[in-house]
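User: Batch of two.

Assistant: Item 1 of 2:
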Amino acid sequence: MTKQKAPKNMSEVAPEPSAPRRGSGSGQGRGRDKRRPDLDTLYSVNRDGSRNMLHPADVSGRWQVRKNLIYASLVAVYLALPWIQVNGQPAVHFDLPGRTAHLFGASFTNQDFYLVFFLLLSLFFS
């Protein structure tokens, strides 16, 4: 099988021989033949310049259910953290006017935030 050179634009493409149209005259569909994706052309554009619409599949199954349960539980934890008390402070509380942050019982001031850079750097390289 030889690999053909991709055309530079759609005008260089030789027109395909006309195939019999499916459902012509009965109003069923547009009569275009189904195309298959390939590496030489853009699949979402047909040879005549019209669009070949791509529709995502509707996914269902046990992994989708598990993913949705994990998403829901993470959102619930995210919304509940300000009301959970740790050492008399909220579990997560950013006090912007006071320039402090209370994270799970530890208090950080504006002078401690340079440590966040080193924490993120160590997490990135590990």
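Item 2 of 2:
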Amino acid sequence: MGIPSRIRALRSSPTTLSTRFPAFGTVLEAGTLFLLTVFFLFYGLVPIFGGAGLGLVGADEPRYAQVAREMLQRHDYITPVLWGKPWLEKPALYYWRAMFSFREFGIHDWTARLPSASFAFVLVTLIYLHIRRFRRGGQLDAALITASCAGIIAFARGASTDMQLAAPFCIGMLGWYAWYETDRKFWLFDLYFFVGAATLAKGPVAPLLALIIIFAFAALRREWSILRRTVWWPGIFLYLAMVLPWFIAVQRRNPKFLKIFFLQHNLERFATDRFHHQQYFWYYLPIVVLALTPWAVIAIAAFVDAVRQSVAEWRARGAKYHYMGNFRAGDAFPEFLVLWALIPIVFFSLSDSKLPGYILPSIPPLTILTGDYLNRMRERGLKPWLLILHAVLTGILTTFVILLPLHLQNPEAIPPTEAIVAGSMTGFAAAIFILICVYRFGLKRLRIATMTPMIILIFFLFGVGPFFGIPALASTKRNITLIDLTYSARPLSRILSQIAPGEPVAVFGVRRDLEYGLSFYRDHRVDDYDKDGVPAQQHILVVRESSVRKLSQILNGRTYEPLFKYPAQNLVIYSVSARQ
């Protein structure tokens, strides 16, 4: 057979290059995973990957980043310090990793977030490798769904401890289940090592959740020997060797550590509303849906399907009946994932203090279930109504993100009709695109059809240029996005550095995240009129417009002149004279 004949035969064959050459398929799959995961987690974060990014937002990001900076400056790896005082709310894992990032790449907001993004990248990669090893077929779906869901994208870009807990905890749980299937002690190493890392990220909640999940799994399957066999002395010694040195060292240097960390920031945080994060009991239900977007509809279907499998298998075990059919022999994975997903949600729903990041460890088991579910549905077909709801949800997300800049510019106003129409049409186009792709090419193209609008939205939120972003203020000569301008202290800090380099800054009536953000970007704690009083020396004052009328009383006898307005955050900036 000549070469043209071979080419025609290859074209007419139902097989693909991936099936004819498995190595090529593996390389293509790994390359796809790498490129898309890097884009979702690092675009707009690390400068070499493009985008304008987003400055540190919220109260926690600038505080955690500042703690890491001060520990690096003091060459102190034991006591977290904020503005010269011990900051004992959290263990040191995030600070250590941020210190390393600062030392290697410089002190920036993106290097403060690199610990979370890198941990998320490792998590996605190990999900792919684990599913490829134990549930071959759905590995790429599971990994990419994890990388492209809103919860992982958001927390992977946060300078916080949430991903420091979730990523190693989830890797440890995957390792434990690998041990359960293979009975090879090697996999127990993952459990003890990574749960140890998670303990150094947030404390005893990591081993507590792991213990509850494993206990519930053993009870459901009536395999109590699992608990005894999980107790592996080399693993226990490894865990203690990782965790105890820092806890002992920080307690010796700071005798109040046990009281502040364990009593106030663990027990009291769970049992009381001391830190003012009280929410309704059902608070985490919409949070989980938002975190799984745009895959939430299919994830819910996958979860319900897994629950049905688990109940059927539980009943079959009770009747001592071994079945085959659609169930894999000895397959306990759906039960394990269901318990793993549910227990953190239920556990933190019982807490009086609730924050979105607490249930981040529940997201990976749900995305894994979703990937496995889609893999099985390729043979049986996805129900049309489920596909339509998925497309509609993706369209709604697209419309929301397109209209977000207008909402940020004027939160109290309804966007113009033409903007609503344009955003709705864009969302409609995204939904139709998904439906057409699946109809034309099959369910195997659902992931790329869904991720295409997500890629465009990431460009829109974190990109630069006349279409994707907002031009920089002329004086800063930097690119910024509208979200940055509206929620971060970074653009304002750049302006202040231009007009008053080195001059002290104070705030009055502003959000505390702006106060902490200005402190980090200027590497100097800003004074708060409400807490610290009015500084005696000449300084720059950042005040909310609604609080300007109070300045005449607070600054009685002092001269204060307006420098400029910062309408993006309803602020006015003044120059205040020294006290006479």
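The chain has three domains: 53-379, 405-462, 490-576.
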